[in-house]
Design brief:
The complex is a heterodimer of chains A (about 220) and B (about 650). Chain A has helices at about 5-25, 30-55, 60-85, 100-120, 130-145, 150-175, 180-205. Chain A is mostly helical and about 220 residues long. The chains are: A mainly alpha (about 220), B mainly alpha (about 650).
Chain lengths: ~220, ~650
């Protein structure tokens, strides 16, 4: 495959990543949010696959498999089940001043492009242009965690951050070392399970998944 | 050591009925103690033996070493530990405290950890053992953890213990000085600069002082001792405080090379202050275990003063006098371990029989518990420093070395040490006063409560335990020369000179400090004189008042019968001290009005150290915490913003 074409495909996929990140930031419905998350996982998988095909990097195929199974299938399924169980299918939440948040996100994108510029000059990979995008997606996911109140949405934000991190790793150095990657994948899985348990606990204790209920520190009334 | 750990583990693994369990395992523990006594005695004369154990972390094996100093403390641990184990075999049979298997495990781990502290030859093993010891004793203190007061006492102990551990850790860190070799052998061979040595010394003083209970760090003692079960307090006071003294001696005499005279002066001053303070407060206590705890503080102060004096002498190269002061120090350590353990066991027996700890509710127990009373009397006399028992010997030696201090080539010291001697004399005299109070109120007079009539004496195991300790007290008191001769290698290793020559000049009945023309002491002569005086007085009395004993009411002021409430109480007895030393106390008193029909008197004595030192520190920490607390809102989003902003800043600044 010719290099310019591949580069364009990768750029396209990266743009999709960023777009989905923005969409997630603005999405109010939980179920939609999870769908978007699964979509982001799929784009990520596709991207990794393209890189793997182009460079004949066999270890990237593991990453592809991991991504596909975990982020496109298992995690969204778990989340959807949680949402169903908790009866949150139709739940939406107020996200606050949406336009302002979007503006902040745009500023973040500009910032991350500036920051990533020197690094991508150093990197010799075909994916180097996408580093800024990866960083921007990560920061946007972070922003989403900050702006949401519902626990499920925060977890999705956390997982999206992990996606972006993975994307950054792929674009900068063709993926992390296998051990690290496996470790992170396992962490994410375990983390989701723990969150799942927490959801029910929070729900039982406070009758709501709103994390504001957790904000009373011990000793402060 | 391994034996004890195995015993503790077995104690946990094998569930037996409470009584059987206590009898079997603690009796086996006694054997361990006896074994250790033997090892200690053997090690005193032998050369230092060291070994490298295969345990520990990779590249960081455990080094152990037995030299005369550690042998001496092993002897102390063994002798006291054997007695406490034997006593526990009886004590823990009868309920009280928590789960017996847990107590058994912790108790034996505690013993094993103390052994390990004494034989450790690298800082790593030492700290490991030290912390194990602290943890085991902490859990033993809070055996009755359902009572809030006990938890509080445990917490204070834990806090102070950690403070000390940090200081010790820093001291070791300085001692190795960039060699990254933590064996004591390497530390002995480094010579630190004067300032670093001084820093190590001060850190060691603070660190070991926290465990031993030197003046501002003593606060945990009067809290923890009453909280713990009696055998545990006996071990903690009798032995654990001595491990701290051991550590202090090890660092300041063995690991540090160039002693400077002012270290000794610091130790001396702290020791004297501690001794005086402990004595005054002991005189005011109305709880018998608190009284003994303050008395421990006093004795530790005496020991530290002796060590400080030895340091001063050693720094000026007067090694013979240093050896003398050290002899007094070590002997007092051993003596204190013996009689304080004995007395704590006695309080344990009293508490078990009466379930009372307050002196105001005891009395007249000598008729109900003759064994306890008799053995406690020996301990009381010994701790009061009366001849011919062991307490007198060590205090006499210490005074001798104090009195020889004018030969020091430093005119300031020549002026100040006599004042210290006077202070020491005051403390020692007060301690006899305290002990009269302790024995008199608990065992003499009439019972102050009805329930005391049902008190019962101790069983065979406890009698053996307390008898063993009393026997040591008497033997050391009667034959101090023989004993000091066996201790001689310790002085050889620490200060380079032994007392062999001066001891050789005295035959075994006469103890001579330095020169026979100055002073010497013979316990046998004292005993003889005491016995003679008693016999003569008794005979004279017989002759002059040849009437048989008759019981008649004492002068009763027309009130009729005397009853138990008219006896001198612990409070009343302590009153003069309270008046004289009012400056040092925080007193809160309430006097009833003369017209009150139901007068009640209450007074509360608080440790001024709390008010002046600890509470300001605690308030400072709280203020600081509230400033930091302003950052903590508890909102998840805000925490996320913190990390977000940090991340952004890092990105912008670094890239």
């Amino acid at each position: 495959m010719s290099s310019p074409f591949v580069g364009q495909v990768i750029d396209l996929l990266a743009a999709l990543m960023l777009l989905i990140a923005f969409a997630m930031l603005a999405q109010r419905r939980l179920l939609r949010l999870i769908h978007l998350f699964a979509l982001q996982g799929a784009v990520l998988t596709l991207n990794t696959m393209v890189v793997a095909v182009t460079l004949v990097q066999s270890h990237l195929w593991f990453s592809v498999a991991l991504n596909l199974v975990l982020k496109v299938i298992v995690l969204p399924m778990i989340l959807i089940r949680v949402v169903n169980r908790l009866g949150l299918r139709r739940d939406a939440e107020s996200v606050g001043n949406l336009p302002f948040i979007m503006l902040v996100a745009v500023v973040l994108v500009i910032l991350s492009f500036n920051v990533a510029l020197p690094i991508s000059r150093l990197a010799g990979t075909i994916t180097r242009g996408t580093l800024g995008i990866a960083m921007a997606s990560m920061l946007i996911a972070f922003l989403m965690m900050i702006t949401r109140r519902k626990a499920v949405a925060q977890v999705v934000g956390f997982l999206a951050m992990e996606n972006a991190l993975f994307f950054a790793a792929t674009s900068a150095t063709y993926g992390m070392p296998m051990v690290v990657e496996l470790g992170i994948a396992l962490d994410v899985l375990v983390g989701t399970f723990i969150f799942g348990i927490f959801f029910f606990q929070i729900r039982e204790t406070f009758d709501s998944l709103d994390t504001r209920s957790l904000e009373r520190l011990g000793g402060r009334e | 050591m391994v034996y004890w750990i195995a015993l503790g583990a077995a104690g946990v693994a094998i569930p037996l009925e409470r009584a059987v369990h206590a009898r079997v395992f603690f009796t086996l523990g006694t054997l361990g103690g006896l074994l250790l006594t033997g090892v200690g005695l053997a090690g005193l004369s032998g050369w230092p033996q060291s070994a490298v154990l295969g345990l520990g972390l990779p590249d960081l094996p455990f080094h152990v070493r037995i030299d005369p100093l550690s042998s001496f403390f092993l002897l102390l641990l063994g002798a006291a530990g054997a007695a406490v184990s034997a006593f526990s075999a009886e004590y823990f049979q009868r309920g009280g405290g928590g789960e017996i298997r847990l107590v058994c495990l912790l108790y034996h781990v505690f013993l094993a950890a103390m052994t390990m502290v004494l034989i450790a030859d690298d800082a790593y093993l030492f700290m490991l053992a030290w912390e194990t010891m602290a943890l085991a004793s902490y859990f033993l203190v809070i055996t009755d953890h359902r009572i809030a007061e006990i938890r509080r006492a445990g917490f204070i102990y834990f806090l102070v213990a950690h403070l000390g551990a940090i200081a010790i850790l820093l001291a070791f860190g300085l001692l190795q000085l960039g060699q990254w070799d933590y064996t004591f052998e390497a530390m002995r061979n480094t010579s630190l600069g004067t300032q670093w040595s001084a820093a190590v010394f001060v850190l060691a003083l603070i660190g070991f002082g926290a465990k031993a209970g030197f003046l501002p760090l003593h606060v945990w003692l009067p809290e923890a001792h009453p909280a713990a079960p009696s055998p545990v307090s006996a071990l903690m006071s009798g032995v654990m405080l001595k491990t701290a003294i051991y550590g202090f001696l090890r660092v300041s005499f063995d690991l540090l090379q160039n002693q400077v005279w002012w270290w000794g002066v610091v130790a001396l001053a702290v020791g004297l202050a501690t001794a005086f303070y402990g004595a005054v407060f002991a005189a005011l206590q109305t709880d018998m275990k608190r009284l003994l705890a303050y008395s421990s503080i006093e004795n530790i102060g005496i020991v530290l003063a002796g060590a400080g004096l030895a340091l001063v002498f050693h720094a000026y190269g007067m090694d013979l006098l240093a050896a003398l002061a050290l002899a007094a120090t070590l002997l007092h350590c051993l003596n204190h371990a013996l009689f304080k353990t004995l007395l704590f066991l006695a309080t344990g027996a009293v508490m078990h029989a009466t379930s009372q700890r307050s002196l105001g509710k005891l009395g007249g127990l000598i008729r109900r518990m003759p064994w306890v009373a008799g053995l406690a009397l020996i301990g009381t006399l010994a701790i009061a420093g009366l001849p011919p028992l062991n307490g007198f010997v060590s205090e006499w030696l210490l005074f001798q070395s104090f009195l020889l201090s004018p030969s020091l080539p430093n005119s300031y010291l020549n002026m100040f040490i006599p004042i210290g001697t006077a202070l020491l004399a005051l403390a020692v005299a007060l301690s006899s006063y305290v002990m009269v109070k302790f024995f008199g109120i608990v065992f003499l007079g009439l019972p102050r409560e009805e329930s005391l009539h049902e008190a019962h004496d101790i069983g065979l195991a406890a009698r053996i335990a307390m008898g063993w300790l009393a026997l040591w007290c008497v033997l050391i008191g009667l034959a101090p020369v023989l004993f000091l001769r066996t201790l001689d290698p310790v002085f050889q290793t620490l200060v380079g000179t032994g007392l062999r020559d001066s001891l050789a000049r005295s035959n075994w009945t006469f103890l001579t400090a330095v020169a026979p023309e100055q002073a010497s002491y013979s316990a046998l002569a004292f005993l003889l004189v005491i016995v003679l005086v008693i016999v003569i007085v008794a005979m004279l009395l017989r002759r002059w008042f040849p009437v048989d004993r008759r019981r008649a009411p004492a002068w009763d002021c027309g009130f009729g019968k005397l009853d138990a409430r008219m006896q001198d109480s612990a409070e009343g007895y302590g009153q003069p001290v309270k008046q004289i030393f009012q400056v040092f106390l925080r007193l809160e008193r309430h006097h009833p009005s003369p017209f009150d029909r139901q007068p009640r008197y209450h007074s509360r004595i608080e440790d001024p150290v709390w008010e002046r030192l600890y509470l300001p520190v605690a308030r400072g920490v709280e203020r600081l915490a509230s400033i930091i607390g302003a950052v903590q809102h508890g909102r998840i989003a805000i925490y996320l913003v913190y990390s977000f902003v940090t991340l952004l800043l890092l990105l912008v600044v670094i890239l």
